[in-house]
Amino acid sequence: MSENILEVKNLKTKFYTEAGIVSAVDDLSFSLEKGKILAVVGESGCGKSVTGMSILNMVKPPGKITEGEVLFCGNNLLLKSQKELRSIRGNEISMIFQEPAAALNPVMKIGAQLAEAITNHKNIDGSRALYEGEGLLAKMGIHSPADIMKSYPHELSGGMCQRVMIAMAIACEPKLLIADEPTTNLDVTIQAQILNLLEELKNTMGLSIMLITHDMGIVAQIADEVLVMYAGQAVEHTEAEVIFDNPRHPYTAGLLKSIPSLTENQEELYNIAGMVPDAAEFTEGCRFAPRCEYALEICFSENPQIHKISPKHMLRCHRYGENAYE
Question: Minimal CB count within 10 Å: which of 188, 253, 306, 311?
Answer without folding.
Answer: 311
